[in-house]
């Protein structure tokens, strides 16, 4: 669940499923402070366009 993921320490590596879940609900997580570090880990930063 998203709440479980948000309780993870900022250094924990997220699984592919966890990353997809956070990405799917990214707009509803905008007001959740704890979601920022997790969300930033979901972004594929090497995919430059």
TrEMBL record:
What PROSITE patterns does the database record attribute to this sequence?
Answer: PIK_HELICAL
The PIK helical domain extends over 1-49
**Pfam families for this protein:** PI3Ka
Query: What domain of life is recorded for the organism?
Result: Eukaryota
Kindly give the SUPFAM superfamilies that the UniProt entry links to this protein. Answer: ARM repeat
The protein's name in its UniProt record: PIK helical domain-containing protein
């Amino acid at each position: 669940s998203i709440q479980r993921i948000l309780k993870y320490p900022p250094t924990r590596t997220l699984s592919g499923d966890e990353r997809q879940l956070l990405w799917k609900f990214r707009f509803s997580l905008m007001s959740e402070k704890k979601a920022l570090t997790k969300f930033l880990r979901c972004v594929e930063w090497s995919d430059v366009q």
